[in-house]
Design the sequence.
């Protein structure tokens, strides 16, 4: 069932709904999953001196319940009293798993920039450009990446990046590669577009598909012709076995200097 | 029909009626006000012909389209002139057919609220919602045929800017309004001072710093509202200035991106999502109200 939290915090009616649910659950020993699609909004609602997250989680959590909540990191919290943790830190400390979701296209752009020793690009609000809230290629339709940190009871945390498939791929670079993603979830590094052995091929397909309206490759004949071109001073580069030397023809008005010009 | 000609073909897919319960976020900046885009949303929706024929037995009548325009920044005269001028549509006729209604929030009193008092805020949100909802209910009761209402909210963010509501209160109002209609368009300005705190928040989340707290509460309310709408919008249309400065033959850049709400549509209408393309184009608003849309580097056309 869906409980919509009203604008003015959790109303008495909703509290009753939640209490009713809890009673129902108390009689059975079924495990349950509670999904909250916007913790950020909940955090803004004041409940006494604290933010609305704590009372909500308190009413929801017990040993048989797991809560999955979405927190938007691009929204600044209003709760910034100096000695209180901000809501994000609060839920982060309490969480047994943290999943950071990002656009796969953005990850790809970042890796390409890194591969060419360029500055990593920023997206959306982080671009600091007037009028831009959202970057292009956000909310990909084929899949997205997740950085997962799973905190185990032993105190050990496992961190791994995954690729989550939303629906089968149809766009060019992927459909032309030998590796295909079939699984719902794969390791991010196993994604064909990120595998180093495909890098050159991906680059070629991308250039052909996206950038140019003409073919940037060379035909065999063009390559042969290009190899046949004799560059100026090409012959000067051969037959110089005695190391680096300045080739200089003296003009008629040049004086020969014994100390400096030792040819 | 003359109205069809005035919608640039490149923009047609974005201006036609989106899937049900969609939210379209339109943003602009101080030099690129997207009123031309909003009037075209109204124009494209109203230019769909009314089905006058009596439906056959057992066949449902094709739903009518209608527009309710709510403005916090501009008055009725401006909008009527703008829509007539830019789309060639007879707004007065549409109004008499009950296909167009204007809700004036510019001259309506803004409620006085005390943000620390929950009751005072609730009363304020109820007042704003009731003011708009009165028109919506009257509007839908005047017609016997089912109708698809496109609700256009022109700069509701004024209400966070004046300190009347917190961003979550305003979000509550717009969400409630969205449920009353077929689809919604929200226009907000997105100049750098309105959104820069969001960038600080992203950085804070990554590094554990608290730089966002250096910004004022007003900035946070302002930015959070916009970002929240982008999170739930089906798509976002953002107008902004050219990075290289003002130009005589370019008014601005229009970027269309998928919002977080696209995944809701993906489940119900995958064909629509497949046809939807992210794009970035340049546009030129002429003195006669005509808009030309063209690719970067291309000369102006259609």
Sequence:
């Amino acid at each position: 069932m869906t409980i919509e939290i009203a604008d003015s915090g959790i109303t008495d009616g909703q509290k009753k709904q939640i209490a009713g649910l809890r009673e129902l659950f108390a009689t059975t020993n079924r495990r349950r999953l509670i999904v909250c699609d916007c913790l950020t909004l909940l955090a803004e609602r004041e409940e006494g001196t604290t933010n609305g997250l704590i009372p909500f989680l308190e009413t929801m959590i017990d040993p048989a319940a797991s809560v999955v909540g979405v927190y938007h990191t691009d929204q600044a919290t209003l709760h910034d009293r100096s000695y209180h943790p901000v809501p994000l830190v609060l839920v982060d400390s309490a969480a047994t798993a943290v999943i950071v979701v990002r656009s796969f296209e953005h990850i790809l752009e970042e890796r390409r920039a890194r591969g060419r020793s360029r500055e990593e690009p920023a997206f959306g609000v982080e671009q600091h450009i007037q009028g831009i809230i959202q970057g292009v290629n956000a909310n990909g339709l084929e899949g997205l990446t997740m950085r997962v940190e799973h905190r185990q009871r032993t105190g050990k945390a496992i961190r791994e990046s995954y690729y989550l498939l939303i629906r089968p791929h149809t766009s060019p670079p992927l459909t032309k590669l030998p590796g295909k993603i079939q699984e719902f979830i794969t390791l991010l590094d196993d994604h064909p577009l990120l595998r180093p052995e495909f890098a050159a091929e991906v680059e070629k397909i991308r250039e052909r598909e996206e950038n140019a309206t003409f073919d940037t490759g060379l035909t065999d004949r063009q390559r042969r012709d290009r190899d046949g071109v004799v560059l100026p001073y090409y012959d000067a580069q051969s037959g110089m076995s005695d190391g680096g030397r300045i080739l200089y023809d003296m003009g008629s008005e040049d004086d020969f200097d014994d100390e400096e010009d030792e040819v | 029909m003359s109205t069809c000609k005035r919608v640039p073909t490149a923009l047609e897919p974005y201006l036609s009626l989106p899937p049900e319960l969609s939210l379209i976020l339109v943003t602009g900046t101080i030099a690129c006000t997207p009123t031309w885009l909003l009037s075209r949303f109204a124009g494209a929706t109203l230019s769909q012909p009314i089905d006058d024929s009596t439906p056959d037995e057992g066949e449902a009548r094709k739903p009518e389209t209608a527009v309710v325009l709510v403005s916090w920044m501009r008055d009725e005269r401006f909008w009527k002139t703008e829509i007539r001028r830019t789309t060639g549509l007879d707004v007065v006729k549409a109004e008499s057919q009950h296909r167009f209604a204007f809700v004036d929030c510019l001259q309506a009193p803004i409620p006085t609220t005390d943000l620390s008092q929950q009751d005072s805020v609730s009363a304020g949100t109820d007042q704003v919602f009731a003011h708009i909802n009165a028109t919506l209910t009257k509007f839908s009761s005047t017609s016997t045929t089912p109708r698809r209402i496109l609700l256009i909210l022109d700069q509701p963010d004024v209400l966070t800017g004046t300190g009347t509501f917190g961003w979550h209160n305003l979000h509550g109002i717009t969400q409630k309004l969205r449920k009353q209609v077929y689809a919604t368009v929200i226009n907000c300005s997105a100049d750098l001072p309105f959104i820069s705190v969001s960038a600080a928040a992203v950085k804070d989340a990554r590094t554990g710093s608290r730089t966002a707290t250096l910004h004022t509460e007003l900035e946070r309310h302002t930015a959070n509202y916009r970002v929240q709408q982008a999170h739930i919008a089906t798509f976002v249309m953002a107008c902004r200035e050219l990075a290289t400065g003002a130009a005589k033959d370019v008014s601005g850049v229009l970027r269309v991106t998928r919002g977080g709400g696209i995944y809701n549509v993906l489940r119900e209408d995958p064909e629509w999502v497949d046809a939807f393309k992210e794009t970035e184009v340049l546009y030129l608003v002429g003195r006669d109200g005509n808009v030309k849309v063209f690719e970067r580097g291309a000369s102006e056309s259609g």
